[in-house]
Amino acid sequence: MSYPLSLPTTQPLITVTHPSPTTWIIELHNGEDSRLTTTLIDQGLKPALDAVEKHWRNDRTKAMAAADKNGGKGALIIVGKRNQSKFFSNGLDYDSIKNDANFFTLTFNPLLKRVLSFPIPTIAAINGHCFAAGMILSLACDYRIMTDGSKRNTWMSMNEVFFGAPWPLSFASLLRAKIGDARLHRKIALEGHRFTPAEALEVGLVDSIVKGDTAAILEKAQEVADRVCGNASAGVWGLIKHDLYRDAMDGCDRELRHVTERMYDAAAKARL
């Protein structure tokens, strides 16, 4: 595998690098705010995840053949655009996907399942605002490292309640899998609270906050990667997660229809 790997090849929206023998980094760089589009997901993130997994599995196979007990280590970091410290991801490019009835079923939910059950530890390096589907993507990762917001105001937020976008079942299933407090569910989903980095750390949305720019956040993410990468060696990291988050995985599979506010309103009026 040759790095850096830029995808899609015709108009790169993500870049994969391999800075150490046990670490891969996926950088999101769709414009300034790394919005998640069908093209970025289907032609960028998904093949990038496949490339990382293939490389790790090949390395692990070689290590096993050589009876190398230290082989098979691996971790993946996902970060927003490196040359800025304002956005991890601003969520979905809503205008481009709102009329695609199959977007969650065929595009986004399979991505969530892929990240949720990825066979090596995943770390979201949240180097700026983390909104809506960007926050969901970060929650699908195993660890979250966030800027402390000292250089610029930074928030995590699920703000769909404010612009009339109903949650797909996958969002609610993943939130319940990762966050156990019903009061926090309410604050996230129904109040659309903007969590500062300090608040996100206090309630457990992130594992650590870091002072500094994207380089400092990546440095801390690399520390986490170095600490946990050995847990992938035995080959069961993804298998354990698949069962640990089975309800969320099933929720991703049960996305049968996308109910809009207008459909909901019309049905309610017809019933009343």
Automatic annotation (TrEMBL):
GO terms for cellular component: peroxisome. It comes from the Eukaryota. GO terms for biological process: fatty acid beta-oxidation. InterPro entries: ClpP/crotonase-like_dom_sf (IPR029045), Enoyl-CoA_hyd/isom_CS (IPR018376), Enoyl-CoA_hydra/iso (IPR001753). GO terms for molecular function: delta(3)-delta(2)-enoyl-CoA isomerase activity. Belongs to the enoyl-CoA hydratase/isomerase family. This is Enoyl-CoA hydratase. The lineage of its organism: Eukaryota, Fungi, Dikarya, Basidiomycota, Agaricomycotina.
